[in-house]
Design brief:
Blueprint lengths: L3 E8 L2 E8 L10 E4 L16 E3 L8 H9 L3 E6 L9 E5 L4 E4 L1
Parallel strand pairs: 2-3, 3-4, 4-5
Antiparallel strand pairs: 1-5, 1-7, 2-6, 6-7
């Protein structure tokens, strides 16, 4: 696909993994790039091993930002993409350079 999209870096780093929609009660691994588009008030610890976090919403003080900085996970927020995110897509999240590339 090789489509690229951008967002705002709130925690730098690079991760390659599979895009997963956040679901309560699911443990995530370094191979998971988790799409957070809801308020996370419980089960935050389930995200500590995720490879990366992205959100279509938010800013530097949103839940995704705070979680990513606390656990040192690469994260982009306010992500704008010309195409909808597809569960299971392989992506490269380069939060440092504020880009997401679908591979």
């Amino acid at each position: 696909m090789n489509q690229s999209t951008t967002g705002i870096c709130v925690s730098p780093g690079i991760a390659t993994g599979t895009l997963r929609q956040y679901q309560k009660g699911v443990y995530y691994t370094k191979d998971d790039i988790v799409l957070l588009n809801e308020w996370i008030t419980s089960n935050v610890a389930l995200l500590k091993d995720a490879g990366g976090l992205i959100s279509n919403q938010g800013g530097i003080t949103c839940h995704a930002s705070i979680i990513s900085r606390e656990y040192g996970i690469p994260c982009l927020v306010a992500v704008k993409s010309p195409e909808p995110f597809v569960e299971g897509a392989r992506i490269i999240l380069d939060a440092t350079n504020e880009s997401i590339t679908f591979i």
